[in-house]
Amino acid sequence: MDVIIVGAGPTGLLLAGDLAAAGLSCTVLERRVDESNLTRAFAVHARTLEELDARGVADELVATGKKVTELRLFGGTGLNLAELPSRYPYVLITPQYHVERVLRERAERLGARIVPGAEVVGLRQDDGGVELTDRAGTSYRAGYVVGTDGVNSAVRRLLGLPFPGRSIIRSIMLADVRLRDTPPDAVAVNGSGDSFALVAPFGDGWYRIFAWNRHHQVADDAPLDFDEIRRTTRDALGTDFGMHDPRWLSRFHSDERQVPRYRVGRVFLAGDAAHVHSPAGGQGMNTGLQDAANLGWKLAAAVQGWAPEGLLDSYQTERHPVGKLVLRSSGAIIRTALVGSAPGRAVRNLVAATALRLPPVAHRAIGVVTGIGIGYPRRKGDHPLVGQRVPDLALADGRRLYEALRSGHFVLLGDAPEGWADRVDAVAPARPTGRAILVRPDAYMAWAAEDGSGVAEALTRWCGRVGLLR
């Protein structure tokens, strides 16, 4: 086995599909036997949809949800997404289980094996690989292991890694309900200082309620009264939309935590196993999916034998700062949203409205929340665009760049020397510029040159030597 993934949530399933698409043998071990009702993620942001487009499944997911072109913040302040420089100028509101279904079907279609009821309890690694043991005593061995098994990650615990941070919101109430009155917006959300509520649709007539009461913060296992959810929602939103017939009630708490290392030898962590954030901005699942997009092609390169030196270590270098950025930004949103006093909320609303009228501030905020503005470090002397997201481009053959990326290869906008066809697809832009651009499989710019020179050197640096693909 080339790679074992522990955890069949969105992060693990996207990674499994990428590895299987690259021809690797891949098994996903999932502790759950049945599908969980613990869907907490409902937002799929533009950058995630672009990554799914590069895998040919974005349109299928978009068909399951609703498009929202404005993110409401405080006191009517919002972020306008309609002018995002993307094929997806909105946030898609769809339950996490639709994301999981689309990614599971893709992974299994490409040959990944998913094993339910496999709870990992043992991990041992050596120079040649990693051995896992599940609770039933079954052993599994692979060259690499990736833990995508959530906030209570068994892989992280077995590695002995700390998960520093703290709880920032206690006793968030959850309920799945029917509504008598349909909310005017796809997502209804507001905070009154003492109360906070969010109403999100499943799309089948059921709605998920998130509610928080400053004056009643109890343990996650404390009894939950449906009347408290209705009262809290009315306090925050001015109405409970006639909610009735709850099919499920629960509580949870929200943490801010990040593991210091995303890699230990042949074992990697991604998604909530590596970082957890407040739910504000809907960035948690999206950050995990983008972890997977970053790691998948690098693991494939290592298994296939052509990974340049340091490529696997670049997963930590690139993604750990992103996790920290999202932790800070989502934490700032939730702390600001829950300001308690009326004067404090008035000041907050004024400052937010004033700041977001400034284009640089608004563009930065939108770029972080949607992922469009997040990039990776570049070396001194590299082209200024290296490490940045590459926008979708029209190609001379009638395709878009993100369609060309569906091969899982690097894409070179320009002429490629002989010997790289197993890793690099050469294409021509619809509007030639004279610039040569090498695009990574995760749709970030690896290299560029205004005069088109230095292609062979760039390919060697990023794609290894010719003739090493196993």
Task: Give your account of this protein's structure.
This protein is an alpha+beta fold and 470 residues long. The chain has three domains: 3-164 and 257-370, FAD/NAD(P)-binding domain (3-Layer(bba) Sandwich); 169-254, Alpha-Beta Plaits (2-Layer Sandwich), CATH 3.30.70.2450; 378-470, 3-Layer(aba) Sandwich (Glutaredoxin). The protein has twelve helices and 24 strands. The chain has helices at residues 10-21, 46-53, 58-62, 96-110, 154-159, 226-237, 284-304, 314-337, 342-356, 359-370, 401-404, 455-463, and strands at residues 3-6, 26-30, 43-44, 66-68, 70-72, 78-80, 91-93, 113-116, 120-126, 129-134, 139-142, 144-147, 165-178, 188-191, 195-201, 207-213, 244-258, 263-264, 267-269, 275-276, 410-413, 424-427, 436-439, 445-449. The strands form six sheets. It has a six-stranded mixed sheet. A hairpin with a 2-residue loop joins strand 18 and strand 19 (267-269). Helix 1 runs parallel beside helix 7 (284-304) and helix 7 runs antiparallel to helix 8. It starts with a strand and ends in a 7-residue tail after the last helix. The mean pLDDT is 89.
